């Protein structure tokens, strides 16, 4: 509050009105004919201005004290100078509406009402036959005005809180979207680029021994590169639907390129999955298979796919070296996040007989329908 004369947020709408009101009040008080001496008038105006300044900056009990003091000065001036000064009660009625406490507003309104009752009583005038009849609706307006200002300020505050909440939500959405895109790029392109790497290494070995096969592998690399470009475009626009059936085909191709065999078994009657559920499972399967190719040094990969009355599960097992690191990398974390988004789970652990087992589970929807095992 140091080095400040007037609240910055009120300069645009209230500064001119307050300045004009204070000048007119000062003129009326100082130019009127009354028994009040010039020193007493200046002291009254000084107390009024101090009360106004305090009410201008505070919203707690100090605002109520300043309003009551200011209203008391206006009451005194109304009796001595004339009832026309009661018009300036709007200054405090406006500031009173900005109080944080409803009790303070209520007490301030009572003070305003008493001011309009005491002035005609002390002046020995009938309330409805005041010198200025317009003061009756002015009194009503000054009593109602703090309530209107309070509602307006409350609405402004709620709108500010809503805007802040919307900005925070937007920030979270943007952050989640960035994480989703990063996750999808890692899962999808990681799978495709791993295939390109494996085929490139194979081509390098075949280029002298079997040029015809090397040429075929180079064509596959070109086709896979086009697929990678298409995947980038799709991921930038939105996450596409990926079926588990198509993912098993991609996985088989990748594992065969790495010299591994894939065996898939189905247990029970599979349930129909939503597009989001199937896509999330397919991307998690892609990540699991990519990790097997990169790290497992396995010869075989076995998949068990099934469902019971409660969960739909996919279990991916290999006969490789098992988990080298206990902490999960980006791929494992992305699988867990995807399953958690579906209220499911993803676990990665070493198998007792060697290798790794990845188990993906999602809860069965109440309206889930069965489909024949294939």
Task: Give structural notes.
The chain has 374 residues and is α+β, with helices and mostly antiparallel strands. Among the domains are: 8-133, no CATH class; 242-374, Heat Shock Protein 90 (2-Layer Sandwich), CATH 3.30.565. It is 64% helix and 10% strand. It has 10 helices and 5 strands. It has helices at 11-31, 38-57, 61-80, 89-96, 102-122, 135-209, 211-237, 244-257, 275-296, 330-341, and strands at residues 261-267, 300-307, 311-318, 345-350, 356-363. A 5-stranded mixed β-sheet has the order 1-2-3-5-4. α4 runs parallel beside α6, α6 (135-209) packs antiparallel against α7 and α8 packs parallel to α9. The protein is rod-shaped. It starts with 10 loop residues before the first helix and ends in an 11-residue tail after the last strand. 29% of the residues are buried.
């Amino acid at each position: 509050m140091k080095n400040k004369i007037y609240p910055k947020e009120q300069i645009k709408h209230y500064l001119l009105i307050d300045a004009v009101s204070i000048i007119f009040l000062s003129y009326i008080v100082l130019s009127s004919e009354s028994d009040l001496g010039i020193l007493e008038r200046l002291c009254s105006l000084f107390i009024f201005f101090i009360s106004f300044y305090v009410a201008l900056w505070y919203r707690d009990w100090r605002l109520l004290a300043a309003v009551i003091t200011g209203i008391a000065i206006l009451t005194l001036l109304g009796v001595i100078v004339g009832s026309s000064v009661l018009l300036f009660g709007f200054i405090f009625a406006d500031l009173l509406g900005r109080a944080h406490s409803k009790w303070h507003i209520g007490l301030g309104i009572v003070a305003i009402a008493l001011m309009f009752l005491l002035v005609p009583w002390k002046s020995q005038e009938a309330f409805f036959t005041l010198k200025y009849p317009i003061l009756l609706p002015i009194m009503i307006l000054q009593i109602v005005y703090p309530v209107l200002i309070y509602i307006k300020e409350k609405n402004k505050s709620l709108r500010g809180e809503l805007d802040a909440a919307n900005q925070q939500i937007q920030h979270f959405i943007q952050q989640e979207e960035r994480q989703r895109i990063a996750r999808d790029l890692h899962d999808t392109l990681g799978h495709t680029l791993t295939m390109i790497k494996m085929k490139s290494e194979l081509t390098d070995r075949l280029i002298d021994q079997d040029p015809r096969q090397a040429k075929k592998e180079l064509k596959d690399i070109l086709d896979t590169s086009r697929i990678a470009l298409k995947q980038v475009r799709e991921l930038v626009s939105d996450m596409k639907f990926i079926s588990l059936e198509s993912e098993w085909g991609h996985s088989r191709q990748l594992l065969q390129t790495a010299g591994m065999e894939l065996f898939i078994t189905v247990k029970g009657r599979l349930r129909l999955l939503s597009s989001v559920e199937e896509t999330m499972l397919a991307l998690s399967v892609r990540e699991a298979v990519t990790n097997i190719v990169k790290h497992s040094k396995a010869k075989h990969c076995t998949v068990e796919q099934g469902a019971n009355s409660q969960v739909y599960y996919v279990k991916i097992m290999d006969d490789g070296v098992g988990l080298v690191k206990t902490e999960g990398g980006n791929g494992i974390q992305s699988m867990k996040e995807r399953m958690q988004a579906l209220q499911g789970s993803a676990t990665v652990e070493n198998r007792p007989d060697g290798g790794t087992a990845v188990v993906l589970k999602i809860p069965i929807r109440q309206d889930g329908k069965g489909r024949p095992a294939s």
